[in-house]
Design brief:
This protein is α+β, with helices and mostly antiparallel strands. The chain has four helices and six strands. The protein has one domain: Alpha-Beta Plaits (2-Layer Sandwich), CATH 3.30.70.20. A four-stranded mixed β-sheet has the order 4-1-6-5. A two-stranded antiparallel sheet has the order 2-3. The radius of gyration is 16 Å and the shape is globular.
Length: 167
């Protein structure tokens, strides 16, 4: 569960989180593609229009009938949210996720280590991996052929508006 502030909580009493051995863990079985993470990131860090430190893409599942939503972090644009970490809170994207599909912590920490031990995880790789953040791994990615992310395409081919996500 994300570390969110309680109403009226004194954040100065929280221990700052370290970011030297950090990891974003994304559970593709939980992500519903709502883009709350992307919106929270842009809002928390006043990211200009046209820049996307975090985008939600999609992959056809191995069954060929359904899709998985995939939050994708940009290495060159995602700074990891040092403002939140300095007061012991998770990054804005993690706090905003309504399904707890995003988890952040130290690789050996209490929030990440049990999940890494329990589930098969792997980073995104392939031809689209040119600017992917290195400290992100995914639960539920195994079995996807080629891991080819789709961009700006309709989820429903019969949709009269073919734009799913603006570039």
């Amino acid at each position: 569960m994300a570390r969110r502030p309680e109403p009226g909580e004194d954040l100065s009493s929280r221990t700052p989180m370290r970011a030297d051995d950090d990891l974003f863990l994304v559970d593709l079985r939980r992500c519903i593609g709502c883009h709350a993470c992307s919106v929270a990131c842009k809002t928390a860090h006043d990211v200009p229009l046209g820049e996307f430190p975090l985008r939600v893409r999609w992959l056809p599942r191995p069954d060929g009938k359904t899709y998985a939503f995939v939050p994708v972090f940009s290495e060159s644009r995602c700074g990891g949210d040092p403002e939140s970490l300095s007061v012991g809170m998770d990054p804005a994207c993690v706090r905003a996720c309504p399904t707890d599909a995003l988890v952040y912590g130290e690789r050996d920490g209490s929030s990440i280590a049990p999940l890494l031990a329990q589930y098969e995880t792997k980073p995104l790789d392939g031809p689209q991996a040119t600017d992917l953040k290195k400290n992100v791994t995914y639960i539920g990615l195994a079995g996807f052929e080629g891991e080819q992310l789709h961009r700006g395409a309709a989820l429903d081919p019969d949709d009269p508006d073919p734009i799913y996500e603006q570039r």
